[in-house]
Amino acid sequence: MQHLFKAWSIIRERIASAKGLLLLTDFDGTISPIVPHPKDAVISQKIKDLLSELKDKEDVRVAVISGRSLGDLKGRVGLSGVIYAGNHGLEIEAGSKKMTHPGAQEAASSILDLGRKLALKLSDYPDAALEEKGLTISLHYRQVKREDVAKIKRMAHEVCEPFMASNRLKMREGKEVIEFLPALSWDKGSAVRWIIDEVNLLGYLPIYLGDDLTDEDAFLALEEMGLTALVGEESPKSVAEYFLSDIGEVELFLGGVKEVLDEKGR
């Protein structure tokens, strides 16, 4: 893994010579700072302006892919003309094209049932935050006392075990969060492939920026055909080709992409 700006001359040429550009980005931790409570997350005006300018350029499409629900994500980004994928890609909106994974709809009652059971157990952990998103659930423990983290993880597994045993739901861990999702072979990588196919973007250069474990599926999906960058510290465990240290560098990168396209008159 290499720092993206150390390879900027190569990346710049790839962007300049591409037929088109598909810029895909995660939300939390990538274009919005990680905050103690998910409801407080905001996108900076500078990054919002850059995304707005990029999505209005010829042969450029911008997509935001997040674990947040589709409605929440759209409200926080607040840009028209952007492709949105919520709930880890289980629901996607690309202009008039809309998709909700049928398996996720079938599992919605199990997600609701699990949410009720988790809420009862979390009464002992007031600093934990349960984010129920219709098709998935996130259990955030960023504010929980360190000595209670193992207890919460154990409790979450015990509550979810019957749902996993019957192959209805699955669990995934992220950065101080546990995700509960339908037990489907669908992830952010699947969402990226759906966007490329359904929005007719084959031949465009896909660029994916993300900071969490769930973004690894998208990195893997684009391993042979795109440009991928982990936002955060360099990690040998990541399959991303490059890394950007923080959101400040994401902003610099987006500005660099705009500059290249401006020079090409696109």
Task: Explain how this protein is built.
The protein has 266 residues and is an alpha/beta fold. It is 38% helix and 22% strand. The chain is built from 9 helices and 13 strands. The protein has helices spanning 8-17, 45-55, 70-77, 102-106, 108-121, 146-165, 188-198, 216-221, 247-263; strands spanning 2-3, 21-25, 60-65, 83-86, 91-94, 97-100, 129-132, 137-140, 169-174, 177-182, 205-210, 227-231, 242-244. The strands form 2 sheets. The protein has a 9-stranded mixed sheet with strand order 1-13-12-11-2-3-4-5-6, with helices on both faces. Strands 7-8-10-9 form a 4-stranded antiparallel sheet, covered by helices on one side. Helix 2 (45-55) links the parallel strand 2 and strand 3. The longest helix is centred in the middle third of the chain and has 20 residues, at 146-165.
Secondary-structure topology with pairs:
Elements: E1 2-3, H1 8-17, E2 21-25, H2 45-55, E3 60-65, H3 70-77, E4 83-86, E5 91-94, E6 97-100, H4 102-106, H5 108-121, E7 129-132, E8 137-140, H6 146-165, E9 169-174, E10 177-182, H7 188-198, E11 205-210, H8 216-221, E12 227-231, E13 242-244, H9 247-263
Parallel strand pairs: 1-13, 2-3, 2-11, 3-4, 11-12, 12-13
Antiparallel strand pairs: 4-5, 5-6, 7-8, 8-10, 9-10
Tag the structure with descriptive keywords.
single chain; 266 residues; alpha/beta; nine-stranded mixed sheet; four-stranded antiparallel sheet; 9 helices; 13 strands; globular
